[in-house]
Amino acid sequence: MLQEKIKGLARQYADEFIHVRHHLHAHPELSYKEFETAKFVQSKLKELGVPYEVMANTGVVGLIKGKNPAKRIIALRADMDALPINEENEVSYRSQNTGVMHACGHDVHTTCLLGATKILNELKEEWEGTIKLIFQPGEEKNPGGASLMIREGVLQNPQPQGIIGLHVHPGLDYGKLSFRKGRVMASADEIYITIRSKGGHAAAPHLTADTILIASHLIVALQQVISRNKNPLSPSVLSICSFQGGHTTNVIPSEVKLMGTFRAMDEEWRFRAHELIRKQAVGLVESMGAEIDLHIDVGYPTVDNDDTLTAKAWQQAEAYMGKEHVEETEVRMGAEDFGYYTQQIPGCFYRLGVRNEEQGIIHQVHTPKFNIDERAIETGMGMMAWLGASV
Fold it and tell me: DSSP string spanning 159-221?
């Protein structure tokens, strides 16, 4: 039975790929600079005899053909980049690149896909179709490696009928998976605002426009744009996270800069909100006597899991893991450039449990102490192989 063979090989190769994860974790690279990581992935594909091509400078795309290769074409995706974080874990495979760390688990994602590649390639006479292996750069930084890969044709020649990706979940125990149909992660846009006036003495505010006061009013007003205009049943968040202006007690600065993020789960509302933000910001600032520059950097779209593909993947996960080990994942306002894929073809983005409270493996992603229960590698690589062969 194919499922049992995949489980057996995942168990057999687990230690090998834990070492692969250690190598990747110790040598992290930032977005669009994954040169050595890409070379490492290429070397592993060469060892397995899996053909590949390089795309978007540091992306790698492999292809495995099973029986009747034209019958079905499924893509499996993993991201490879790390974050500008200084690791605080005291482990033998700690990051050797100061200030760079795989704090979001992309080393785990790449490892699981490499492990699945070895399993699927070994069993390619026992499943039907073609599997496209997408090792993607730049998930952590706009414009997103997925958008670059798509632009260079990653979803063509051959065109996948669906795409599957996984992400570590530090809130979910090792040995579990979680799925969700429909919208599962938010869009993410960056907001940059500069408010200008001629500045002046703090004791004579009537001779200028007070940029600090104007910026303060604007922050409050922008919150009302969201709370009073969006559908309350549709999650959306606007957070101003940086307020830069002034340097002493008695000078009204000539310039204040604000930076923030806007998140939404509905693409139509997302772009309507952009217009409302612009209208409110420009109108308020100019009415108070200052000038404004506003830029909204449009980022990743909503991750919208296809109902049919996700239902099938969920069902197959339950068959592989047992129903008690598969949960419904929560909606998250975090963003993922996997959303670009789901705009083009049916997609399923699911979660891999990596938490182990007894071992102190409890830290969230994007923190200096994030780590995983490495037994999740066996689960992750086996599940990716099973889904690739069965959905």
Answer: PPSEEEEEEEEEEEETT-EEE-SEEEE-EEEEEEEEEE---EETT-GGGS--HHHHHHHHHHH
Sheet order of strands, 291-297 included:
236-244, 255-264, 187-196, 291-297
Comparing C-alpha atoms, which of 218, 290, 217 is closest to residue 252? 290
pLDDT in tens, 4-62: 999 999 999 999 999 999 999 999 999 999 999 999 999 999 999 999 999 999 999 99
H or E stretch including 306? none
Please say which residue of 252, 269, 297 terminates a domain: 297
Domain that holds residue 264: 187-297
Residues 260 and 232 in one domain: yes
Q: Answer yes or no: do 11 and 98 share one domain.
A: yes
Q: Are residues 31 and 146 in the same domain?
A: yes
Out of 52, 300, 340, 341, the active site residue is: 300
Among the listed residues 140, 327, 336, 374, the single catalytic one is 374
C-beta of residue 134 within 8 angstroms of C-beta of residue 61? yes
Show the beta-strand stretches assigned E in the chain: 52-55, 59-65, 73-79, 130-136, 162-173, 177-179, 182-185, 187-196, 200-201, 236-244, 251-252, 255-264, 291-297, 303-305, 326-328, 347-355
**Segment 159-192, tens digit of pLDDT:** 999 999 999 999 999 999 999 999 999 999 999 9
**Mean pLDDT, residues 125-141 taken together:** 98
Residue 300 catalytic? yes
The stretch 122-151 carries a mean pLDDT of 97
The whole-angstrom separation of Cα 314 and Cα 43 is 32
Are 233 and 173 found together in one domain?
no
**Residue 28: predicted pLDDT:** 98
pLDDT digits (tens, 9 = 90+) for 84-104: 999 999 999 999 999 999 999
Q: Are residues 270 and 227 in the same domain?
A: yes
Q: Looking at the structure, do residues 152 and 274 belong to the same domain, yes or no?
A: no
